[in-house]
Amino acid sequence: MYQHILSEKSQGVGKITLNRPEVYNALNNQIKLELKGAFEKMGEDSEVRAIILTAQGAAFCSGQDLKAAQSELAGTTYSEAVKTYYNPLILTMRNLPKPIICQLNGVAAGAGCSLALACDMIIASEKASLAELFVGIGLVMDSGSTYFLPRMVGSLRAFELAATGRSVSAIEAVQMGLINQAVPDDRMEVTVSKIAQQLSQAPTKTIGLIKKMLNESQNMTLEEVLAYEAEVQDQAAATEDHQEGVRAFLEKRNPNFKGR
After folding, report:
1. List of E strands, 60-214
2. Residue 54: predicted pLDDT
């Protein structure tokens, strides 16, 4: 079904794997469309309650496939290409009402860094690194990095990383709040799987609402946030999982959430 990615699901967890290891999982137009389609499909699949994004080979994603871009950009502009392929993918990920965990197995550079930052959690191998390499070819950040980066690390550090394009090790990335955890390479898959399983057994609709609220609160005043929280709380309270959570609390047992 897919040419450049792998897609699978098991025990409530979906997994999407970039599969162009021969070019360090560089992003051509086809893989961007496949990623967007795979996320949309998992978003609609009631059996999938958490998603892992990872990659085959030594790198997570080296960014835009510059060789492919020579032909893909013919007759168009950078703006049109970004709006057609990158922006819809990033918006699909951020608007997906399910948690996305990035299993960062190696280098994430340029648009590959943006792709990682668009996830809800990032668990990295200690050997992994991130770099906003756009400046190295005379371009500005795109695919959401201008939005994500200052919100994660602050404006001073964001400018430094964007203007220098320097590589940030997984260990440093944890320290600056760019990723959640850095773990030994041989422990990464187990660590990510454990987190994904925990999220897949959580109240899925509530997790989706939390994700939406955190996205939207970035541009709200405190008064607006307080009103929004009250509104969304009614939506959470109307779920079956809320009722189950209350019953479980009163019966002194662990809840059995169904994602409804």
Report:
1. 100-104, 107-109, 121-125, 129-131, 168-169, 181-183
2. 98
- How do residues 199-256 score in pLDDT, each as one tens digit? 999 999 999 999 999 999 988 999 999 999 999 999 999 999 999 889 989 998 899 8
Strand 13-18 with 5-10, pairing: antiparallel
**Architecture label for domain 5-200:** Alpha-Beta Complex (3.90)
State in Å, rounded, how far the first CA of the chain is from the last one: 29
CA 98 to CA 48: how far, in whole Å?
Answer: 8
Q: Where in the chain is the domain with CATH 1.10.12.10?
A: 204-250
pLDDT in tens, 177-189: 999 999 999 999 9
pTM of this structure: 0.93
Question: Domain 204-250's class?
Answer: mainly alpha
Residue type, 243: Q
DSSP designation for 251 = T
- In the sheet with 168-169, reading across from the earlier edge strand, the strands are 107-109, 129-131, 168-169
The amino acid present at 256, given as its one-letter code, is N
